[in-house]
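Our consortium's second objective concerns turning raw sequence data into structural hypotheses that experimental partners can test. To show how far this objective has progressed, the report includes one record in full. It was chosen at random from the queue rather than selected for favorable results. The single chain below, 240 residues long, was entered without modification.
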Amino acid sequence: MDIVTIKDLTKTYPGFTLDSVSFSLAPGRIAGFIGRNGAGKTTTIKSMLNLVHPDHGQVEYFGMPLSGNEAQIKRRIGYSTGTISWYPRKRIRDIKAVTKPFYDSWDDARYESFLRLFALDESKTPRELSDGMKVKCNLLFALSHGAEVLILDEPTSGLDPFSRDELLDIFEQIKQTGVAIFFSTHIISDIEKCADDIVYISKGRIVAAIPKEEFATRHQQPGESLEEAFLRLERGVLDA
C-alpha cells in the first residue's frame, strides 16, 4: 500500500504551471525527485505540505486526504529544507524544548543519537552554523519524532562529499524501518547511490515516476550514465 499519493496536483503562477502532477510513495523506499531549477520541485513539495495551496488535485497520506486531517498527518511526517530560517537566534536546545511538545512520538534517545552523529553543539544557534551544519540541524528535528514519511527539499545542499555520503547512508538505515523518504536534489550521484525510485519533473510536468531500474531500462542508452541520460532527456523535453 502506498503511504503517500499525489493526484493531479495543479498550481498556476504567472509564467509557470505545475501541471497535473501525480505520483506515489511506498513505505521503506527512497524516491529521488529530480529536475532543473524552476521545474516545479519546490512548488510540488510545498503543495504536498499545504504550504502552497494548489488550484486542483489531492494529497493523501496514510489513506487520508491532507485537507481536513493536516494536524494529524503532520505529526507523522518530517520535513526539512536545505536551509534553516526559523528561530535563528535560539540555541538548539531551546528549539528542541519548543518543538518536542508538538509530537507525542518524540524520542529523546533518537534525538541524542542524531545530535552526536551530526556533531551538533546544542549551545549554538542556527545563525552560528555553517550551511552544511544547518542542513544537519534541520534533519535532527525531522528525524527525532519517529516520522513515517520524510520529505526533504535539497537535504544535501551545502554538504561536503563526506557528510553527504554519511547522510545518504543514514537514509539507507532509516528506510529499513519502513520509512518512506522523498528528497529533491540536483546531485545525480545522490540518486545513483541511494534512490529506489525516480520522480523526474520538467517544466511542471512529471516525465517519469518509476523504480530506478525501470528508468534505466526505459530511458538510459547503452553505456550512458544516469546524469547523461537526464541531460539528454531534458534537452528533448525542452525541445518538445
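The partners drew two points from this record. Strands lie at 4-13, 16-25, 30-34, 56-61, 64-65, 77-81, 149-153, 180-185, 197-202, 205-211. The mean pLDDT is 91. Both points have been shared with the crystallography group to help prioritize constructs.
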